[in-house]
Amino acid sequence: VEDSGTHVEPPQPSEAARSSGPTGRRVPVAIVMWENLVVALLKEEFSTSLVEALGGELRAAQPSFPFDEFIAGAAGALKPLELTQRRELITDRLVEALPADFGDAAKVLHAALESPTLTGWMTMPVGYFVAVAGLADPEVALPLLARLTPRFTSEGPIRPFIEAHPEVTFDALRRWLADPDEHVRRLVSEGTRPRLPWAPLLRGFIADPTPCFELLDALVDDPSLYVRRSVANHLNDVAKDHPDIALAWARQWQPRGDDAAWTVKHGLRTLVKQGNPGALALMGVDVDAKVSTTGLSLDADEIAIGQDIAFTCTLVLKEPRQARLVIDYRVHYMGARGPKQPKVFKLATRKAVADEPTRSASAAPRNEALLGLTHELVEEHTDQADHDDTEHDDAVTEEGSGLPNHGA
Q1: 212 Rama class: left (phi>0) / alpha (psi -120 to 50) / beta
Q2: Strands 343-353 and 358-365, bridge-based pairing
Q3: Could you write out the DSSP letters of every residue in 163-196?
Q4: pTM across the whole model
């Protein structure tokens, strides 16, 4: 958002929320309400000024570009539309304004990309133009998408090519594995994700993710964290539909070194959250440890929306050894029509010693109706870095959000 020119301060916890509960650090997690606000603001990036700037870039590359027709009536046409609709409108205008022959249109776009100011949001409709106008010509379109992706991710526009021309597209993806640009390497992983947020599902890979293994296998220990995070999100997608396949891949990758182990750890977050024994074992958790929980207590019987409730409990390892434990908690929310499905939140990772109590405490706001998957942890020793990834992260960060890559 900062790189796009829009800046909005995120919501801050109230003074009461900051001061209540046990001492320790509080870690705000993604807020659904905040996500919706961001999306509403981002649509304003697709404005009349953006259309004019994009038209100017194309006119500079091709003096005969019909600039006046391209921008005519843009303000009125854009005003009632939402984010995706605005992008589609600009894409449609590109289809009308650029040469009908896609090869000629691609030459104009390659020339325009010589300008460093053709970047950011204005490049997003260009990528989708390639997906619309160039779908029948993948040999020309795919190199153009690779050149566009450092300006604005091509993860969405490449997906029609994966479905329409899988062999040609996979040949290109294999070549890009060795590309020196991390944005192009990331496109290999991100563009093939089965469940990429804000993009059509790749149902073939949901049914069978194994064609992507060779691509991820080459990137799992990539030197770029940006690329590895994408591989982790891809693995997390696979885990949602095929946990056994995800675990098999993870077991192959984890021994490769710290970078691959980091990717595996973040890629298995959904399975860890579900308590999957195989995923927990890969994280070094003693899944068979005998642990008792005592003294669970709440600091209030009733609270209002916006208030916190703190809980404490004691866990005791009931066997003569040490054990590494992942401690989560599950909240059963009351909805307008009765109880909702419970939600699991991460609390702490601890090394427990036999018969030595481990005390855990947390405070979570109960304003679920307003904030969705939001909570604050006040456990002083919480290993939050291990567990703060939620499916919400994909929606508003660089992880497949459609935000410009340079803003990641």
Answers
A1: alpha
A2: unpaired
A3: HH-HHHHHHHHHHHTT-S-HHHHHHHHHHT-TT-
A4: 0.77
